[in-house]
Amino acid sequence: MHEQWMRLALTEAMKTADDVPVGAIVVREGAVIAAAHNERERTGDPLAHAEVLALQRAARVLGTRRLSGCALYVTLEPCPMCAGAAIMAGIDVLVFGAYDSAYGCCGSRYLLPADSHFNHQVPCVGGVLQEESEQLLNSFFKTLRR
């Protein structure tokens, strides 16, 4: 089941033109309610990560900041900001593809969503379509270095 949603997140990631190809979708009751990809370069906004944009769009669709009953799928392990946004949104589960040894806060560097100091914890599932997610990122950076 996770694979079908991650494939949609990968499709979203491929829509990036000049940014790190990360895609995110928010799923509720078996339907995608929001999708986004990184827009940092296009907008000049350091906060325009795919996860944040997808969570914002989902909140608009639902008319509430509380995204209980929702799952967040993202192609790259969330950074501290995005992991925190998932906690603050109150999502039920966070699923990601590639691990991020530099900034990943859903298991690689830290497991922020499981920190018991917060009043909401978010279970994380990593490595879903990991190879496909890594290939997309590696291809982008290989092209960028040329």
Low-pLDDT regions: none
Mean pLDDT: 96
Percent of residues in helices: 25-40%
The largest sheet, given as strand count, sense and whether it forms a barrel, is: 5 strands, mixed
Beta-strand share of residues:
15-25%
* Assembly form of the protein: single chain
- Number of distinct beta strands: 5
The helix count comes to 5
Shape designation: globular
What is the straight-line distance between the termini?
37 Å
Fold and architecture overview:
The structure is a single chain. The protein is α/β, with parallel strands linked by helices. It contains 5 helices and 5 strands, in the order αββααβαββα. It has helices at 2-13, 40-43, 50-62, 80-89, 130-145, and strands at 23-28, 31-37, 70-76, 93-98, 124-125. It has a 5-stranded mixed sheet with strand order 2-1-3-4-5. Helix 4 links the parallel strand 3 and strand 4 (93-98). Helix 3 runs parallel beside helix 4 (80-89). The termini are far apart. The mean pLDDT is 96.
Task: List the main descriptive attributes of the protein structure presented here.
single chain, alpha/beta, five-stranded mixed sheet, 5 helices
Nutshell version of this structure?
This protein is α/β, with parallel strands linked by helices and 146 residues long. It has five helices and five strands. It has helices spanning 2-13, 40-43, 50-62, 80-89, 130-145, and strands at residues 23-28, 31-37, 70-76, 93-98, 124-125.
Question: What is the topological layout?
Answer:
Layout: H1 2-13, E1 23-28, E2 31-37, H2 40-43, H3 50-62, E3 70-76, H4 80-89, E4 93-98, E5 124-125, H5 130-145
Parallel strand pairs: 3-4, 4-5
Antiparallel strand pairs: 1-2, 1-3
